[in-house]
Amino acid sequence: MLSAQERAHVAQVWDLIAGHEAAFGAELLLSTKIYFKHLGVCPDEAQLLTHGQRVLEAVGVAVQHIDHLRAALSPLADLHAQVLRVDPANFPLLIQCFQVVLASHLQGEFTVQMQAAWDKFLTEVATVLTEKYR
């Protein structure tokens, strides 16, 4: 899936995010409101931070288990496909928004090579999360 260099880029970016999951996650969710109207006009800040943190913690699990994404994300895939019934078309939109959040916060630290590695990594995460829909 990812080369050794791409894995290193994913880990390096995650090291910059770690400890700031709630803030990054909340901004991610806020940036998706154009696509996901159900988030409301002015969501409760605490709820947004909580859910944003959960989203980013799931990304952290994926980073930690980059070699075993299917096994690590299987419960989350079941939840999104069978319980929450999230439209699988939402995942690519979330990936785009996440990369914008990363670029805006990390700026020069988020190199083209890092962006490409994260795009590839997040696309694989989205693929794993949507496999349960089939």
Layout: helices, strands, pairs:
Elements: H1 4-17, H2 21-31, H3 45-64, H4 69-83, H5 90-106, H6 112-130
Helix pairs in contact: 1-6, 2-3, 2-5, 4-6, 5-6
Please characterize this protein's 3D structure:
The chain is mainly α. The chain is 72% helix and 0% strand. The chain is built from 6 helices and no strands. Helix 4 crosses helix 6. The mean pLDDT is 89.
Give me a quick take on this structure.
This protein has 134 residues and is mainly α. It has helices at 4-17, 21-31, 45-64, 69-83, 90-106, 112-130.
Question: What are the main properties of this structure?
Answer:
single chain; 6 helices; 72% helix; 134 residues; mainly alpha
Q: Please, what is the oligomeric state?
A: single chain
Query: Rough shape?
Result: globular
Q: What's the SSE pattern?
A: HHHHHH
Give the averaged pLDDT, no decimals: 89
**Class by helix and strand content?**
mainly alpha
Number of helices in the DSSP assignment: 6
* β-strand number: 0
Task: Using the CA coordinates, give the radius of gyration.
Answer: 14 Å
* Largest sheet composition: none
- Estimate the strand proportion: under 5%
* Spans where pLDDT lies below 50 across 5 or more residues: none
Helical amount:
over 70%
Report the end-to-end length measured between terminal Cα atoms. Answer: 21 Å
